[in-house]
């Protein structure tokens, strides 16, 4: 029987069954929906502790408001692989994060009308010793970058450990062996901002599609396991506002656009982490430079056409998730993502991106992201 390293067949089987169930619930006949180029880089670039909670990653659902008001369904598959070496000791807190994390995600979204869309995200989380330590240390040496004392520790180890002896209830969490499991499932509902204005409805002949802004409500369910660091075992809520600019043409073949989001995240009360912040502010902004745009312009503010190559530059940030003196837990985070997107045709798009920490130690040292989108 073929065995794949770092993969638990039983967990993968449960993950596959969950995906099939999502497909059966979400998919039904509908109109084809193009995959647009002005999209976020949807990588989950948080480190293993912050990543436990349901702070929503930047993600583009189906375009709403929609001019024709038709239903549509979209499928997104992505893999984000990160390497981290970080930690410290402050007062009664001790943290060490040394290893690699792979987050495999299936995201299904459906537009039910010209004004509303919904999506569900099913992740598979894997923590391993990894194989990138030597490459990252060499990279830091080449460019004379700080290495957070990586060279003092043996390469390709896995240790994710947190201890808090403050207060009357000492807590300790430690992982030194490979872990894998279905993470916390999240669901989202989008509503077009223009749809909230009385007397306006999306549909044929409507001008509502010009409003290119939406509100998103999100909920994350406790389907993962804290002891495996695949979930926080809390129910988390979020609300965010997102908007995109109309694509502006640069010459005959190039065009430029941007999209941003800002929101508030409310984590559920954890039985392990007792120093959480009750509210977390987050935001993202992406600049999309399309190099070979077709000559037409889509009604949604994007360039229509079968193929196109885009360069992307994105910044993601959020306020601290914990009231902690540790840099990794108690500071604002900022992460820079650069990538390319290839729109294969009107229904398929590929993304490849690299993410680096801007505020040192608050996010993984290195994240590589591969994403695929398909209209159904």
SSE map:
Blueprint (H helix, E strand, L loop, with lengths): L8 H18 L45 E19 L2 E19 L4 E13 L4 H10 L16 E6 L6 E5 L3 E4 L3 E7 L20 E8 L15 E9 L3 E3 L3 E13 L13 E11 L17 E11 L8 H4 L2 E11 L4 E10 L8 E10 L1
Antiparallel strand pairs: 1-2, 1-16, 2-3, 2-4, 3-6, 3-7, 4-5, 7-8, 8-9, 9-11, 10-11, 11-12, 12-13, 13-14, 14-15, 15-16
General description of the model:
The chain has helices at 9-26, 133-142, 327-330; strands spanning 72-90, 93-111, 116-128, 159-164, 171-175, 179-182, 186-192, 213-220, 236-244, 248-250, 254-266, 280-290, 308-318, 333-343, 348-357, 366-375. The protein contains 3 helices and 16 strands. The chain has a 12-stranded antiparallel β-barrel with strand order 1-2-3-7-8-9-11-12-13-14-15-16. With 376 residues, the chain is mainly β. It has one domain (9-375): Porin (Beta Barrel). The longest helix has 18 residues, at 9-26. A hairpin with an 8-residue loop joins strand 15 (348-357) and strand 16.
């Amino acid at each position: 029987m073929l065995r794949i390293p770092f993969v638990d067949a039983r967990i993968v089987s449960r993950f596959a069954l969950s995906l099939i169930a999502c497909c059966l619930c979400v998919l039904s006949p509908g109109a084809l929906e193009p995959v647009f180029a002005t999209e976020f880089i949807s990588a989950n670039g948080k480190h293993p502790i912050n990543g436990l909670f349901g702070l929503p990653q930047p993600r583009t659902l189906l375009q709403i408001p929609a001019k024709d008001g038709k239903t549509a369904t979209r499928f997104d598959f992505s893999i984000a692989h990160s390497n981290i070496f970080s930690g410290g000791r402050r007062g009664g807190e001790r943290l060490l994060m040394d290893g690699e994390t792979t987050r495999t995600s299936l995201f299904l979204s459906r537009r039910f009308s010209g004004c509303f869309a919904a999506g569900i995200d099913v992740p598979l989380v894997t923590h391993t010793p990894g194989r990138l330590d030597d490459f990252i240390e060499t990279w830091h040496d080449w460019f004379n970058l700080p290495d957070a004392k990586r060279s003092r520790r043996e390469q390709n180890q896995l240790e994710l450990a947190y201890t808090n002896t403050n207060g009357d209830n000492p807590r300790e969490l430690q992982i030194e062996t490979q872990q894998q499991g279905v993470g916390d499932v999240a669901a989202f509902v989008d509503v077009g901002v223009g749809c909230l204005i009385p007397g306006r409805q999306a549909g044929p002949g409507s001008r509502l599609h010009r409003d290119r802004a939406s509100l998103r409500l999100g909920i994350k369910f406790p389907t993962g396991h804290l002891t495996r660091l695949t979930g926080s075992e809390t129910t988390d809520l979020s609300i965010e506002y997102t908007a995109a600019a109309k694509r502006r043409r640069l010459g005959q073949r190039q065009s430029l656009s941007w999209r941003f989001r800002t929101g508030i995240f409310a984590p559920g009360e954890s039985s392990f982490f007792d120093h959480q912040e009750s509210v977390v502010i987050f935001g993202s902004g992406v600049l999309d430079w399309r190099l070979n745009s077709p000559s037409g312009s889509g009604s949604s503010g994007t360039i229509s056409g079968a193929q196109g190559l885009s360069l992307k530059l994105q910044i993601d940030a959020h306020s601290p998730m914990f009231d902690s003196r540790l840099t990794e837990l108690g500071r604002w985070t900022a992460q820079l993502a650069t990538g390319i997107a290839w729109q294969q045709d009107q229904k398929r798009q590929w993304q490849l991106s690299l993410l680096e920490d801007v505020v040192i130690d608050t996010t993984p040292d290195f994240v590589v992201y591969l994403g695929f989108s398909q209209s159904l």
